[in-house]
Amino acid sequence: MAMNVTGKTAIVTGAGSGINLCFAIKLLDKGCNVVFADLALRPEAEAVVSKYPLTSSGAKAVFQQTDVTDWAQLDRMFAVAFEHFGGADIVCPGAGVYEPVCLLFIPRYPVLQSEQHS
Q1: In angstroms, what CA-CA distances link 66 with 27, 31, 84, 95, 110?
Q2: What domain range includes position 108?
């Protein structure tokens, strides 16, 4: 079932680049306000946020620097949605949280360690 997002507000974590940026653009194109929540914005994401200022008559975008592993920053992310848009109707938890490849060789990964020696 398709959802009409016109006039709604979405928080998209990881919207500073990649597939989550594409998702945020699609929402904006459909008339949805978007909170871009990421550690930083790539230049193309900065351009999108600039294209949809808070003063525009249609869809609006705002960037909130957010580390999704920090509860205080997540609280601030939602506060920004409330401050600018009265809340959030959609939350897309798209930010990636990963461990660097160098950690794969720590003994707590017994399966990977055994595969390394085969």
Answers
A1: 20, 24, 16, 10, 33
A2: 9-116
What are the pLDDT digits (tens) for 53-110? 999 999 999 999 999 999 999 999 999 999 999 999 999 999 986 655 555 555 554 5
In a domain, 45, yes or no: yes
Query: Does residue 3 lie in a domain region?
Result: no
What CATH number corresponds to the domain at position 100? 3.40.50.720
Q: Say if residue 111 is exposed, middle or buried (CB neighbours under 10 Å; 0-12, 13-18, 19+).
A: exposed
30: phi then psi, degrees, rounded to nearest 5 = -90, 5
